[in-house]
Specification:
Length: about 180
């Protein structure tokens, strides 16, 4: 038997093959960026991987519609943000980071940068979920206030108030880091 498909196997149409190939290219190109954003939203590598996996699965299901002129990355990010907000609403467990922050070091070594990143991570996790989402969208993803409001399904005023409260809390938690650069009070 030459050229026969195994029992139970189905042949894919060229259209399905092309869609799968296009999604695979999208996945390989954008998954690392989506994972970085998911990590900032969740604060945990494994939860971030799960969040990206769920968002990409939903994006794949909508791929035919998105490939006809839609924006697959924007769709995947929106799905990711909405899934994370849903997780925050379902799970109201307060997580705390044990231990104290290391002492402030000289800026000339790389260890100081790592310490600042860890301190920022802890400070972000201390924020309420919605405030953390606003900070991530506004300052890490560089979205405007209206784009952030659109993604989070809220009003621009809500984004502004969450931003102000989050930055005030971050300034309180991290007085050694200048948050005023590029940020209006």
């Amino acid at each position: 038997m030459t050229g026969a498909a195994p029992a139970g196997a189905t042949a894919r149409s060229p259209v399905v093959e092309q869609m799968t190939s296009d999604f695979d290219a999208f996945f390989r190109g954008r998954a690392p960026a989506l994972l970085r954003t998911a990590y900032l939203l969740t604060g945990d590598k494994h939860l971030a991987e799960d969040l990206v996996q769920d968002a990409l699965a939903r994006t794949f299901r909508a791929w035919r519609r998105l490939s006809d002129g839609g924006n697959p990355e924007a769709y995947a990010r929106r799905v990711m943000y909405h899934l994370q907000v849903s997780m925050w609403r379902r799970r109201r467990v307060v997580e705390t980071m044990p231990g104290e922050l290391p002492e402030h070091r000289d800026h000339s070594d790389h260890a100081h940068n790592a310490v600042e990143r860890l301190a920022l991570r802890r400070a972000l996790q201390a924020l309420p979920a919605r405030q953390r989402a606003v900070v991530v969208l506004r300052y890490f993803e560089d979205h405007s206030e209206s784009e952030t409001a659109d993604i989070l399904n809220c009003r621009v005023g809500t984004v502004k108030s969450h931003t102000a409260r989050a930055l005030a809390k971050l300034r309180e938690l991290m007085p050694e880091i200048d948050l005023s650069e590029g940020v209006t009070r």
